[in-house]
């Protein structure tokens, strides 16, 4: 077939393939439009059932966890003085809670984290279940009652059906021994529950409501019209009839179709409803399908255009390929001519070692003609038998792994004469990394090897002493001439390795240059003269050079039959050992992020100050500083910005300190200050300045201003403190009071008359 007719046939076949692809794409679009609508409804039913079950499970787990905390709390309230602290500790460990109150059986609030709630009376009559049987029970109140308890507002209309966003009260009611009732009321942050449903609402556009078992709404994610509210009232009735979980399509009074899912928790008195407008869902699905269809159509057209372009490109590149082939053939001929003219013997073998090509220099070296060498293995031609199997095994292992092998071996010429050969074997691999050939370069190494061995014998003893000595060294005789030196002395001392410092030359110039590198050149030269005069061995003497390096020197007098014949200087660079020691000390005593002392160093500093106060009566102050809501900075801006903020805080505080004051980071966002010779007035003044400068100096990061505040606890150390724990516990207590009283404030912990915490 002629090339022109062959190309025309290929063009017609390619056009037919494009037409068939367009027809198949049109049929696929029609089928996809019909099936996608049916699929959307079934998917939404599955999503509704899954989302509802997920919210019920997560909310129930949260309520059960809170109930467990309240139950455990009731077991630890025998100490009335510690109730408030225990309440606050539970709040700190449960971010979903706002307040906790202890209530007697008559409804009177005995103790609360909201101080204004104490001694108020409320009746939890509308809470579910209204009359619990004996034992432990969890009851849920209307949402705005929880808001009242959390904010300390007067208790009001507990029957209000749809409250403003606030807090949900949760009651743990337990019948103790002897019929005594124990009641704890905790307020659950409604915003915390809304955040749990936020991802589901954002991805499904559904409306989610949390209802008590009697139908009272605790929260919903968006307002509902009258028709949907009527559906929810029917759902609450279904719960009473025993229908705890259903997914169905319902029609509201305004004839709108809703996909509704609802589920009642199996053990707790609440349930969840999930609803989405079916017409809106179908409209969104159709819009999405149209958009996807258009995208797919564009992709198909783009693919066909690419295929057409590729076909045309293939037609054009075929002609270019033939031209490149002719050029490559010419280059190959030129390369072969160059290799034939090379003075070194070169052979190319297959992966199994069979010779495929050789140049004329190979024949001159081995005595074998090229014709009789092609197809044969070099070991059959030139192997001498001197090298063992291990030698060749290592060589083949190297080249088969893709590496270049170089080495010396003894081979045999065709006439039987042995010769030393320097051999280099390089693997030649294809684009996939598979070895296709080996290229070997051979050189007659017989004469050069003999010359090298003779030279090595002459210098072997000297090299063994000088170059293999563990350290940089230089030796002088009693006339001050260099009799022994190694290269390491130039590298270690930073000396120019030129002819001024060779054997037989005066050592004085070398010493002068060394003294200029040393930190104190005069002291360096004086010390050399002292060592020569004393003529006694000195080991491990340390020298500091101007570039910060530490050099260790050994000085050894050389004697022959008690006669002094010279001096040996041995130098070792110990800078890294010194730096390592400093780094270990830095890691042990300071905070790696901010560079200020760490907890361990701070406690040692306090102990020294306490000992000083015991010997010399006076005063000192301790400040405990905690950054308010620092977790929000990490959560909002990331931990990297949080680290930048900690360094910013340290810089601001340091501006306010005296030389003897100690600022330390105890961990996380907690810092501490030790102020020697500081009374109560001075400590409070500095604490207020620290609080104010942090409040008024936000961190500027990437164009944003990040504000921060701090709570500060202050106490005074006195000679009566029998140990550091007394003073630290007072400072911690003052810090706790500052945080509990609203944060961004300074609190003072006074010393008891006996001097204890």
- Estimated structural class: alpha+beta
Could you describe the largest sheet, including whether it forms a barrel? 5 strands, antiparallel
Q: In which order are the strands of the major sheet placed?
A: 2-1-5-4-3
Distance between the termini: 107 Å
Tally the beta strands.
Answer: 27
Task: Please tell me the overall pLDDT.
Answer: 79
Assign an overall shape: flat
Task: Kindly estimate the percentage of residues that lie in beta strands according to DSSP.
Answer: 15-25%
Number of helical runs? 20
Radius of gyration: 45 Å
Labels describing this entry:
757 residues, five-stranded antiparallel β-sheet, 20 helices, alpha+beta
Please specify the SSE layout and strand pairing.
Blueprint lengths: L2 H72 L8 H11 L3 E7 L5 E4 L23 E5 L2 H9 L15 E9 L5 E9 H15 L2 E6 L4 E4 L5 H16 L3 E7 L5 E8 L5 E8 H63 L4 E5 L5 E4 L1 H7 L3 H4 L4 H5 L6 H12 L4 E8 L5 E12 L5 E10 L1 H21 L5 E6 L4 E4 L1 H7 L14 H10 L3 H14 L3 E7 L5 E11 L2 E11 L1 H15 L9 H17 L4 E8 L2 H8 L1 H16 L7 E6 L2 E7 L3 H17 L2 E3 L2 E3 L3 E8 L6 H17 L5 E4 L8
Parallel strand pairs: 26-27
Antiparallel strand pairs: 1-2, 1-5, 3-4, 4-5, 6-7, 6-10, 8-9, 9-10, 11-12, 11-15, 13-14, 14-15, 16-17, 16-20, 18-19, 19-20, 21-23, 21-26, 22-23, 24-25
Helix pairs in contact: 1-4, 1-6, 13-14, 17-18
